[in-house]
Amino acid sequence: MKITANGISMNYTLDGPTGAPVVTLSHSLATTLAMWEPQLKALTARWRVLNYDTRGHGGTDAPRGAYTLDQLADDAQALLRALGIARTHWVGLSMGGMIGQTLALKAPELFSSLVLCDTSSRIPPEAKPLWDERVHTAETKGMEPLVEGTLARWLTTPFRERGGEVVERVRGMIRSTNPVGYIGCCQAISSLNLTDRIGVIKLPTLIIVGEEDQGTPVAASRVMNEQIKGSQLAILKSAAHLSNMEQPEAFTQALVGFLSKLG
């Protein structure tokens, strides 16, 4: 479905029991809301689930220019407002977790809880050239040269080498990402620097990370776990960056177990 929020047309789905607490799902860079398919059945059995495409991705508009995490957080807040959702549990993976932290700092009253998956609170300055290089590649050659390198970071080698439907689905999502949206979101991500601020977050918080995540390693999750007092940390074995797709049962179990205790 489409709705206008924060000046752009946003693509979303809203499923599950009417009147149930809302869970909002926010995907990673270079994927779409389809990334969350492994979790939907378990979540929609009990919660009202809002799943949406971030600015520049999937069926949501991709305006030209650099985006900011504040802007992506404003998009999410405007979407919730447009749909009449006053409070939600937030589940964000990678970029989605960065948006969640940003919005939790701007408008904590919107959130019942925060689930930060395979994400970080800071991109170190030495990583900036990597992001600049990805932007340059997408600008000059499109997404195709980025596909296999991204897959290699996102999924463990044994899982990737076995191939199969999940690997192909991820490959397809990366390949079909709008370069304009990818570039805009890369520029937002590369300026992430929230570590010194997230200590004020008082929400029930779960941090999930794949043990073999290269992009946002376990060390980054441990930092968030230390900064956000009372947060829980779940480390998933045999999983890299897209832990919800590589280890869907373990991921869903951790997520549903956490949310169930909150109602």
Describe the structure.
With 263 residues, the chain is an alpha/beta fold. The chain has one domain: 3-Layer(aba) Sandwich (Rossmann fold). Helices cover 44% and strands 17% of the residues. The chain has helices spanning 37-44, 69-82, 95-106, 128-141, 144-154, 157-162, 165-176, 179-189, 218-227, 243-246, 248-262; strands at residues 2-5, 8-15, 22-26, 48-52, 88-93, 111-117, 205-210, 232-236. It has an 8-stranded mixed sheet with strand order 1-2-4-3-5-6-7-8, with helices on both faces. Strand 1 (2-5) and strand 2 (8-15) form a beta hairpin.
CATH class: Alpha Beta
Total number of helices: 11
Distance linking N and C termini: 27 Å
What is the rounded Rg? 17 Å
Weakly predicted, low-confidence segments: none
Which structural class do you get from the secondary structure elements? alpha/beta
CATH-defined fold name:
Rossmann fold
Q: Which architecture per CATH?
A: 3-Layer(aba) Sandwich
Number of strands: 8
How much helicity do the residues have?
40-55%
Helix and strand arrangement:
Layout: E1 2-5, E2 8-15, E3 22-26, H1 37-44, E4 48-52, H2 69-82, E5 88-93, H3 95-106, E6 111-117, H4 128-141, H5 144-154, H6 157-162, H7 165-176, H8 179-189, E7 205-210, H9 218-227, E8 232-236, H10 243-246, H11 248-262
Parallel strand pairs: 3-4, 3-5, 5-6, 6-7, 7-8
Antiparallel strand pairs: 1-2, 2-4
